Structures are given as structure tokens and as C-alpha cells.
Amino acid sequence: MGLLSLLKQSNVIYIIFGITFLTSGLIINFFQCFLYFGLRPFSRYLYRKINYYLCYSLYSQFVFVAEWWAGLELRNLKKIINMYEIDWICGWILCERTGVLGNCKAYVKKSLQYVPTFGWAWRFAEFIFMERNWEKDKKIITSLINELVNYPDSITLLLCAEGTRVTAQKLEASQKFAQKAGLPILNYHLTPRTKGFIASLPHMRGKITDIYDIQLQFKSDDPIKPTLTNLLQGKQVTAYLSISRIPLDEVPEDEKGAEEWLHKLYEKKDRMAKSFEETGDFFAISEVPKLERSIIKKRYYSLVNIICWTVVVLTPMLYYLINLLLSGSIIYFLIGASIYLLMQRMIGMSKISKSSSYGTNDKKLQ
Question: DSSP per residue over 301-346, as a string?
Fold first, then answer.
């Protein structure tokens, strides 16, 4: 086993990643907060320009882990997605390679905005936080969509119409609902929830030109499962991705027509998922026209970003740690050793709690 492989298995590396991310995330949150209250009331344009780079600096640290540390591959790219533990990272990789990572937005549940680093960053980045109360959510969608379409640069807005991860129980309940409602019965996806999608459309027309339908899957027989733990350990994962561009004008303007259009789209996605599971190809038996393969090369920005943050965060920490050890104080030494052992304990617990259900009967799908 080479030196690099040993490093990828070392808990010290995980601690370095964790300290760097948490510290840099809180620093970024501080500047976001300062700019949100100090600059945004006077110039939203300038605030959004600066916030793009702050968000990019935070998100790209996970892109680095996937692309450069673990060597994750995206295959079958064209002009998100079965829900796995790292599906969101694959989406971020795609955004990074197309230059919109700092401006990627999503519909997410409101409770996430209180989570340090990511949640706070999303709050300052004007994500659409849903309360699971349709009367309130409809007003939120109307207000924030009108804000997002006026961004100074290109943005991406992720909508997972199924609303949650798939489990065997949820899939069974979804199929029963679809049967009663006379809707297509899906085997790999949940029946999409149409209200949020339909409520967003009127505010997008004329300002947002395209919808990108994305289908992401991993081979179930791959010995390296798509988990965050495997990425942190530097194990290479291969993701298979199909992306098709749909002009927004193709979506019917009336609510009934838009609802039917979304159900037909998910029926097609379900056929593609079945085709991939059975043949390893999205198009072999799905009756969906085959898309030509396109490759978007990875960029060096995420690598440069993580190097800069590691130097900024770890240099003063190592300086004070060395001084602590050289001070000769047994109390200080025990405090440092206790912190290290606690971090190792937390990493061990994380490996257990973060294990994916991928490959089991309760397999996570979108």
C-alpha cells in the first residue's frame, strides 16, 4: 500500500478535512452575515456578486473531496436524480464544471437553514425554504422566484419533485396513491408532487429559458458503493449521468397540462431507471432516444481553494499546538490529547451512522 493510500485511510486526514471545513465555513458565514445586513440593503447586485464566491469557496471543498481526493467519475454527460448518499455532490460537480456552483439554489425544508455552515450559507444565498404548509409555501415560492430570476449571473435551481428520498415503504404508498388517482405507477421513483413545480412556472416564463432533466445512477454490482465515507477514504466511485435540455416553452401553460407533462416526464425517467438497472444503459430498453456522450472536464479551482483554506486554517492551529506541547504543561498536553481522541471517537461514530442503505431492499432512490 502506497503512502497516498495510507493517508486516505488515516483518521488524521479526516480530522484535517473536518477542522478545515468547519472553520472555513464559519468564517464564510460571518462574512455572509456582515454583507447581508451591511451591503445587501444598498446593493443587491454587488452583494450577490460577492456571495457567489463565498458560496463557491464553501461548496467546492466537497467537490475537491469527490473529484481530486476520490477521483469520482461522471460518465455519459449530455446537454438531479436517483437519490443516493452522494447525489448532491454529483450535482455540485456538474455545477462546478459548468461554472455555476456559487449560484446553485434549491427547494429545501425550512429546518435546514438553522444548520451551521451549509444551512446558514443557504439562508444568505436565498435558497427557497419550504415550510410544508401549502398556503405559506405558495407565497414563499412567488416571492423568491421573482428574486432569483433577477440574479446578475446564471443560476441553477434544483427541484426534486418527489419531495423525499425513496424507501420501500414510501414507494409502496406512492404506488397505491397513483393507482387510486389514475396516475402512472412508477417502480423506481415516487409519484411527483406537482404543486411547487406548477406554482413556480408563471414566475419563470420569459426569464428562465430551459429545464434540465437529470438522471443519475450507480451500478448496483459495483464493489465500491456511493457513500460519503468511501469518498473520504479516497475510493473511486463512478456515477452515470444523463442530462437533457427541455425548453420551458414546451411545458403547457395551464395547470392541468403542466401536471400531466410532469407525470409523463417521470414515467420516462422510470423507464430509463429500469433500463439502467437491467442493462447498464439508460436507453437500451427505455424507448428514449439515445443522447450522444459529452465530457465536461474538471477544473483546478476546487483544488486551489482547498489548499488555500488548509494553509489559512491549519497554520495557526499547528503553531499553537506545537507551543502547547513545548510548554511542558501536563494539563495542556492532556487537554490536547483528549480533543484528539474525542475527534477520533466522533469519526468512528460517523462511519457507523452514515453507512448507506445502497444495495439493500430499502435502497435509496429519488
Answer: HHHHHHHHHHHHHHHHHHHHHHHHHHT--HHHHHHHHHHHHHHHHH
List the chain residues with pLDDT less than 70: 1-8, 10, 75-84, 324-325, 327-366
Neighbours of 235 (CB within 10 A): 18
Q: What was the pLDDT predicted at 337?
A: 61
Residue 203 sits in which domain range? 3-307
318 found inside a domain? no
pLDDT of residue 342: 56
244 belongs to a structural domain = yes
**CB of 99 within 8 A of CB of 153?**
no
DSSP classification of residue 79: -
Tally the domains of the chain. Answer: 1
Nearby residues of 222 by Cβ (< 8 Å), 6 or more positions away = 237, 238
pLDDT for the residue numbered 359 = 38
Residue 122 lies in a domain: yes
